[in-house]
């Protein structure tokens, strides 16, 4: 990395030339790309707005969180999980794994560097990545990184989503998103409404039950719920095995039948299944099925009450769309996340308005003019790893070709001598 701030200061900020790519984001996707580039011998810079790697996992997840899939489907390239780790590693174990990954490949992100904008300069044929430092002695200082390749690795889950609901600003109780939820311990004895019935909503409700709270869960749409394991084998692993021999529609039917056998008919409790099968829905719309780890039993026993959508809030109550009113102390929004790419990347050809690559999997990893995307496959950590390996290989090939051509180039003075 070479700084030429003394010679180039058109924008009154320090400018830094990066001979390799700039990677935005030090989560699993960014780390996997960086590791691949390190193996290819390509220099790079990783920019991270938080003060640690995998900030989503470190700062925005609840205490009881574990990987939903077996560890072999969640490992990053060239670095398996330790053998002594359980089948489903805990939050702490996964964070330790990612920190060990960064250490093994000598990845040193520039922390507290918030990317304000990134734009391709057609004239210079370079990416201009502008950042501002948000912490420490350098807080407020601005830098512009110039590079030929830009890797967007901020992922699909950068910013929490909280829906706009009438009266929410008037509600006097506690309002938080699932990213700020840690444990049900602080909610003992309280009346809590959890909005959302995905994996996060189910787990938050289960955790609240385990801390002697009887939550109400708002179910606004249909959802697929599958057991995490079937006959001791991961449902995901079983599905991947069946897909090698059977068409997707048939695997969907088998999974739904097994789910009905194990979990029973959940429609009578208020959980309706989508008309499209779980795998097809995941592939076409990116909606992940819920993998049950105990919440369904709590729903059956009525320890978790399922309620219809919310119409509006008042100071101490919530009114449902069916007219029923519930007195509550707290509301937790398990309403998911969205990409933050539209806020800083000035580009409209490769990324859509929602911050996801327009090209469907498996073609959403590479754009034009040296633009790449990692971790937007809607296929979890395995998808992020697949993206990372493609990106590192692609950039590595270009990098090595340039080095080879540079070595083969005949010095000017020798060409001059040969003409005499």
UniProtKB/TrEMBL annotation:
Keywords noted in UniProt:
Auxin biosynthesis, FAD, Flavoprotein, Monooxygenase, NADP, Oxidoreductase
- According to its UniProt record, which reaction does this protein catalyse? indole-3-pyruvate + NADPH + O2 + H(+) = (indol-3-yl)acetate + CO2 + NADP(+) + H2O
Molecular function via GO? flavin adenine dinucleotide binding; indole-3-pyruvate monooxygenase activity; N,N-dimethylaniline monooxygenase activity; NADP binding
InterPro entries in the record, alphabetically?
Answer: Auxin_biosynth/cation_transpt (IPR050982), FAD/NAD-bd_sf (IPR036188), Flavin_mOase-like (IPR020946), NAD(P)-bd_dom_sf (IPR036291)
Q: Which residues cross the membrane?
A: none
- Any idea of its EC number? 1.-.-.-
Required cofactor names = FAD
Q: Which GO terms describe its biological process?
A: auxin biosynthetic process
* A Pfam family recorded for this sequence: FMO-like
Q: Specify whether Calcium is a keyword of the entry.
A: no
Broad enzyme group: oxidoreductase
- Pathway(s): Plant hormone metabolism; auxin biosynthesis
Alphabetized PANTHER family for the sequence: FLAVIN-BINDING MONOOXYGENASE-LIKE PROTEIN (AFU_ORTHOLOGUE AFUA_4G09220), INDOLE-3-PYRUVATE MONOOXYGENASE YUCCA8-RELATED
Q: Which family does it belong to?
A: Belongs to the FMO family.
Quote the protein name from its UniProt record. Answer: Flavin-containing monooxygenase
Origin organism is Olea europaea subsp. europaea
